[in-house]
Amino acid sequence: MKLAKFPRLRITHGPTPLEPMKRLSEALGGPNLWIKRDDCTGLASGGNKTRKLEYLMAEAVQQGADTIITQGATQSNHARQTVAIAAKLGMQSHIILEDRTGYTFEDYKHSGNVFLDHLYGASISEVPVDTDMNAAMAQLADKLRSQGRRPYVIPGGGSNPVGALGYVTCALELANQANEMGVAFDCLVHATGSAGTQAGLVVGLYGARTQIPVYGVGVRAPKPAQEERVYKLACDTAELLGVPGCVQREDVFANCDYVGPGYGKPTPGMIEAVKMFARLEGLLLDPVYSGKGAAGLIDLCRKGHFKKGQNVVFLHTGGSVGLYGYQHAFKDALAA
Ligand SMILES: *Cc1c(COP(=O)(O)O)cnc(C)c1O
Question: 0.85 exceeded by the pTM?
Answer without folding.
Answer: yes
